[in-house]
């Protein structure tokens, strides 16, 4: 059976390059550039691969399978982030170390007992490849798995190559407050804003040099991606990078509505439109939609809706709420929109709405970790206007913009 499987992998690896265009002919991801231009550099090295279900080429072939099938590459171990190497674990779920059913390779979990590779995991590895699709939001966990891999690699003297992929929400715009050190966590480790406008390879450069990790880092860049692409990476097939990130539209609204994860309002987990659908049993759908539409936020409309989540918050309970419809992607300002949603819910339902606590009796820390500060929650509680909140985070945002220019790779 093992021999038959390897034969299948070899046949997949032999698909001609021209076949890739049948699925997507847009930006060429780092894995394709690596195998086309730099494969010789992999010869003789024992390779560890940090990846998940998004690690595919434009023909949707898993890079695990592509690398395992090559006779000139010695792939010896896999490392999986949140949701696992094959993407079969829900948000926050414990990811166990195991063996990959397809290749038989050991899979080391980086979202379980250990979030940083141990010396035992890295023993005998000569080179680490990292290839995971990011979504462009500070509070997504994959960039911090990358940071931990860089730290461990520096400790053990192992080079890291990051195989770059597009930022699905674009590379020009930055938005939102910069994380304050007191709120550092696995949903925000460094002082960057909610919308950072960088690719995973650019973030690697920032983390490594700008924030002092100091690993032996190389980035294998994409070909054909530009910061201002109207549909960033849109010609590439979309593989959901986590179970509740089904579309590129989800990634765009997630930049704002992920704030609801720090409240008792459903962010739409357990529906077919997570982060685009939101609400709670105490919400009057029409009232909320009218209040949000009255704000005249750019590029978005809110439609009253009813839903019953199948899991997560309010599972099995009828909820009133809204569905977010982005009418103009260029004009839409996702973090300000998400903040407006939280503020409106707080103001309309002061007796029912609450910020979630990390544990019974604890302060509402998770919202603060997502926001990157405590003052935003306090400002909502005081009834401060949105404009005043946005004005407050601008100086640090401008400083970040100046810093990030040193680490950008694409025009």
Structure notes:
This protein is α/β, with parallel strands linked by helices and 411 residues long. Helices cover 31% and strands 14% of the residues. The chain has a seven-stranded mixed sheet with strand order 3-4-2-1-5-6-9, sandwiched between helices. Helix 5 links the parallel strand 5 (127-131) and strand 6. The longest helix has 19 residues, at 386-404. The N and C termini lie far apart (48 Å). Mean pLDDT is 91; it is low at 1-23.
Jot down its keywords.
about 30% helix, single chain, alpha/beta, 7-stranded mixed sheet, about 15% strand, about 400 residues, disordered N terminus, 3-stranded antiparallel sheet, globular
Portion of residues within helices: 25-40%
Please state the average pLDDT score: 91
Shape annotation: globular
Order of helices and strands: HHEHEEEHEHEEEHEHEHEEHHHH
Q: In which order are the strands of the major sheet placed?
A: 3-4-2-1-5-6-9
For the terminal residues, how far apart are their CA atoms?
A: 48 Å
Number of strands: 12
Structural class: alpha/beta
| Low-confidence regions | 1-23
Radius of gyration: 22 Å
Compact overview of the structure:
The protein has helices spanning 2-13, 30-37, 63-69, 119-122, 142-156, 200-210, 248-257, 285-294, 334-348, 365-371, 375-382, 386-404; strands spanning 46-51, 74-80, 98-99, 106-109, 127-131, 160-163, 175-178, 193-195, 217-220, 277-280, 300-307, 319-326.
